[in-house]
Structures are given as structure tokens and as C-alpha cells.
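Listing S7. Sequence submitted for prediction.
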Amino acid sequence: MELKVTTLEGKDAGSVELSDAIFGLEPRADIIQRCVQWQLNKRQAGTHKAKGRAEIWRTGKKMYKQKGTGGARHGSARVPQFRGGGRAFGPVVRSHATDLPKKVRALALKHALSAKAKDGGLVVIDNAAVKEAKTKALLGHFSGLGLTNALIIDGAELNAGFATAARNIPNIDVLPIQGINVYDILRRQKLVLTKAAVDALEARFK
């Protein structure tokens, strides 16, 4: 699979051959969905907590006598029926993380990349570097390339000026190749890869 390479200025910079084993698969929504769910589950804090009846401080004395009041029979003021009582089956501190095999995660990433390539949402640029860390100048480059909602993946090291200029632009994410993930690929309309990112991906899945 061959794709044209452009510069940030929109000039032609040749072409690159993309591996069909990574970018040419028929996307499977079920595998991608499993990986997205795994990511979202893993990032939940799970720090929500409500007090149960055992954690409420109230007297243990029986509220009133068992018989003769004409009301319901109660023994404790800590029960959920009363205002200020413990909550029944409330949330507790726990991990929401689920398991997903590494091979399925790797396959999901390939399918997400293939989905972007199939939909025409994949762009390859020669490098993600600017001389001056100016947001306005970078915004001009992006508008020239038609990038209003995009995830930009560079090599192992991000260009400091580029990352600084891009961080204040809404709907634009910049990540090193180590941070590439299925959820971020899907939540942006365009996926922009540098040549270094393409080489790193092919080396990773070799």
C-alpha cells in the first residue's frame, strides 16, 4: 500500500510503502471495541465510596419498644430506611480494570490503523518539527493540510517546539510512538504519522 508523503507546508515529499499486515487489514469492530472498553475500564479511578450501615456512628439502642406502637418494628437507626443511615449496596473502592491479552491489544491497534487507512483518514508527513514554537504559524500549516481534528504521532522523541506550539490548539493531540493507542486514534478524525512513526510501527510488528 503506497501513500504520498507531504511536508507541514503542504509540499510533496515523495511516497512511502505501508505494510498491508498493519495498514491493509479488513477492520473488525468487535476487536476494536474490546480494546477501547479495556482502555476506558483501566483508566477509571474507582475511588467512589459510600458508607454502609456498619460504618455509621449512631447509638445501638433499640429505637422504641417492639410492640404496642402501631408502627413498624425497628431495632437500629443505622439502617438505610432512615435519613442519615448507611447506604445499601453502595459503591466501594475497587479497580475497574479488566484483562485483555497482549496479542488482542496488538491486533486491535493494527485494525484501528487499517480502519483509518481505509477511510482516508491517514496522513503521512516527513517530520513534525518547526523552527519557531509559534501556535499561530503551526495553525496555518494545519489549516493548509486540512487538519482540524487530528492525532499526530511522531518518533520516540517529540520535537519540543512542535509539541509546545500544538498543545494549545483544540482537538489536536501530539504523542510519541510509545503513546499510540486505539482510543485516541478513533476519537480523532485524522491520524497523522511521521516517517519515523511509520518505521517504528513496522519494526514493532515485524
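Caption to Listing S7: primary sequence and predicted C-alpha cells for the chain studied. The CA atoms of residues 39 and 200 lie 22 Å apart. The first strand starts at residue 2 and ends at 6.
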